[in-house]
Amino acid sequence: MSYLNHVLQPGETVRYQGSVHWILYLPPIFLSVIGAVAAFTGPVGLIVATVCFAVALVVALRAWFIRWTTEIAVTNLRVIYAQGFIQRRSVEVHMDKIESVDVDQSVLSRLFNYGNVTIHGTGTTLEPFRGIDRPIEFRNQVTAT
Fold it and tell me: How far apart are the first and last CA of the chain?
């Protein structure tokens, strides 16, 4: 059972459901390409390729696990961000407590449509939600009335 389904209140509806962007898979893809190129360079290259593929597999599994265990949602009442499997970290901000929403995107993140979103609440600033897929759409759902 997902965290989101577990914490929804009666009458609360989900307006937006997001995730962490697939860009997390870029490092293992690059490592795999390096490993494939190294595999054709001889016996030493095979050792390098084996190491590259092993590290790429571990990094890809980590990226998959992060995407699988991260839930991001905007409901009609609050913003919900939960991450983790055994040790869960969750942030829930009620809509009436949100002052502003900042979106930070580099050139690369604008091209691939991901970024960091920071929600400023009354009295406190939350740490940014990093690597969010479609951050502008997320912000628009938070700031929509």
Answer: 30
- 139: burial class by Cβ within 10 Å (0-12, 13-18, 19+)? buried
Class of residue 67 by CB neighbours under 10 A (exposed 0-12, middle 13-18, buried 19+): middle
Q: What is the pLDDT of residue 63?
A: 95
b/e burial code for range 32-60 (CB count within 10 A of at least 16 → b) = bebbeebbeeeeeeeebbeebbebbeebb
As a whole number, the mean pLDDT across the chain is 91
In percent, the amount of the chain with pLDDT more than 90 equals 66
Residue 56 has pLDDT above 80, yes or no: yes
The amino acid sitting at 71 is E
Q: What is the pTM of this model?
A: 0.83
Yes or no: say if 85 and 65 are a contact pair by the CB < 8 Å rule.
yes
